[in-house]
Amino acid sequence: MPTQTMRAIRLHEHGGPEVLRYDEVPIPEPAPGEVLVRVHAVGVNPPDWYLRDGLTTMPGEPEARVSLPTVPGTDVSGVVEAVAADVHGLAPGDEVFGLLRFPSFSGSAYAEYVAAPASDLAIKPAGIDHVHAAGVPMAGLTAWQFLIEVGHDLPSPFQKARHRPTTLDDGTTVLVNGAAGGVGHFAVQLAKWKGARVIAVASGTHESFLRDLGADRFIDYTRSRPEELVHDVDLVLDTVGGPRSDRLLHTLKRGGAHFPVFPGNFDEEETTKLDVTVSSAQVRSNGAQLAELGRLLDTGTVRVSIDSTFTLADARAAHERAARGHIRGKIVLTVA
Length: 336
Prior knowledge:
By secondary structure, the chain is α/β, with parallel strands linked by helices. It folds into two domains: 5-137 and 284-334, Medium-chain alcohol dehydrogenases, catalytic domain (Quinone Oxidoreductase, Chain A, domain 1, Alpha-Beta Complex); 164-278, NAD(P)-binding Rossmann-like Domain (Rossmann fold). The protein is 23% helix and 27% strand. It contains nine helices and 15 strands. Strand 12, helix 7 and strand 13 form a beta-alpha-beta unit. Helix 3 packs across helix 4 (182-193). It starts with a strand and ends with a strand.
């Protein structure tokens, strides 16, 4: 068994990257249904800096409040160290990856060890290392649950109707806005896997990267407006959001769908007039879906791009990198 303490990043107060503190804390004990994972790498995601900035209640989860100090993070890849008595299917020594306890702020992934729900984990694909595996869970599952299968019947905090992915095949055209980012680069590949024609929107520096992932057409948003160049697409997946995200509605054909990853302001009268659907979802932990995604990673059908890596102790620099934007793929923390 490991020693009784470990190193972890904790928040004792909210603020900028400088409030991320490298502490020594007790190693958690796995509760029923959980395993103890020795962490090798941690994915960095937007909810990590939302929590750091002061958001303590996850949308749709009013009881999931945060008390300080707390360990941020949700995405891990590592090795099972111990399992609770009621856990079957995982054993010490298994290499695993997962999105932990999402939607909530209780993943506690920025640490050398984490107690993780077994149902949130999948066996790590043998063909990729821990750094690349840690870059998958939240971004990969977001793309999967928006485009392929939601995987649950739980209500969304963002809309009354259940999100229903659009059928993707060789007769479908998909526009991915923010295509070079974490969710975007998975969405490009998953849409291509299903046979769709993909239009990728990003800054010009990412063109060769996105074409290599399978994008059929590339639009540099710094030079052109997608809504002026593109028409009659079946689906827009917008990973950027912002006050003008509704402009992409005009790229859709009648009967098309707009899936905003970050809910924006859409006028119901306009969407009715255009005869388009706007639908959002909230990503949730799902070990079974991660296992499916893992098979695509193992065969090379889907690849993970790593923007940059930082040690766990240097989490502040990782958050500073995230704040600069224009991320290609994922930022990952490595754990010795």
